[in-house]
Amino acid sequence: MLADMKRLLLMLPLALLLVGCGGKGAAPKVLSIVASNNSPASGEQVQLSVQTDSGAGFRKAEWTADAGRFAGSQATTVETNTPEAFWTAPKVSVETTVTVSVKVTNFRGNTDTSQFKVLVQPTGAAQRVQITGFTFAKGGPVITAGDQVQATVKTSGGTPAQIQWSVAPVLGSLAIRSGDTVTWMSPDSVAADTKVQLRATVTDEAGLNTTDYVEVTVQPKAPAALKARIVTLSGSKAVLAPGDQVDFTVTVADSASVRDIRWTVLNGVGTLLVDRGPKAQWIAPSSVSADTTAELGVTVYDVNGGQDTGSTKVIVKPSISGGGSTSSLPKITGFTINPAGVIKPNDSVSVTVDLSNTSVTPDVAWTVIAAPGSPNSVLSVSTGKTAIWIAPAAVTSEAVYRLQATVTSAGLEGREQGFVDLVVRPSSQ
Fold this sequence. Notes:
By secondary structure, this protein is mainly β. The protein has one helix at about 1-10; strands at about 20, 30-35, 45-50, 60-65, 70, 75-80, 85-90, 95-105, 110-120, 130-140, 140-145, 150-155, 160-170, 175, 180-185, 195-205, 210-220, 230-235, 240, 245-250, 260-265, 270-275, 280-285, 290-300, 305-315, 330-340, 350-355, 365-370, 380, 385-390, 400-410, 415-425. The chain is built from one helix and 32 strands.
């Protein structure tokens, strides 16, 4: 009579037997646990699946049983990153009740725990083929995204009639799905370390199945080396009046690797007329009540998917003393940098100012501006159209040095000021 009552209970929906307790929040909530067989035979494998209503997603499940063993660990406990688990009932000589528990965690770290009972029968299916382990012929158990894995399943206790493979969660592609060795191509990219189960389901000559899996961790690819690195940022004017227009130029090491260049106004002062490409055009606000700094940013995107960013500043004054410049005074149209590669400590760099009016021989004076506490650099040639500047002997992090050119000419009023921001990178970059 007691045995009949047990069997009647096992015919009820499994969800009615769940005993749940909330974790650190309302989500997740275990709704049910589905078993492929609620009353397995001694030594029979059961597939379990937990269903939740978690609004924060499913992160992992921790399964525990009083007896038997779980695929993946061959122990009474296992942690899975999928909602499924495969549990093999213990070998028993009398009807035996086994309690199986599951603790589900979502991506917020909230948990919920439930348990159910399984009645294991002392007789039933014949001995199944047993999976005894896995070996890797190629790759695994830790690989990089895009790598290929070949895994072989080992069995005992009978002759497998068929072996089928699957992947959980479904990622990458299976080139070979049957036989004792599987070939799996991992996904080309993952955002973080990702665990994948390569599952082998072995069917014996009696048509009975057993499933186990080997876990593979797929790691993200190392970021591609950044080629298109910013060398200099320059502007045709450093100090300007309201409404003035400035041309900004970025020079880039390995310019053939550049995919795109975009400019932005970082502090909302002034307007960009041209915001894409190595040269940008920006116009100052039509009026300012006090000295106002405008900051522009530039992002260089390279073909490897990397990017480099930089920024530069100019000052807008309410008025510029000295009556401004006449049309005869040469205008700064740009700068020529030599060499054009990445600047390292102790490098010598020549900077030539490009002028609009070559019929006038101007006077050009150069100055160096650097952030307080920056390592000292040397301006070995500070007058004339070409300046010679030597980077500091050692820098531990990226540093920016501004070379400012002031252009004047005898008998002509006003002056022109432009600048080049030189980016010095440590030897290790």
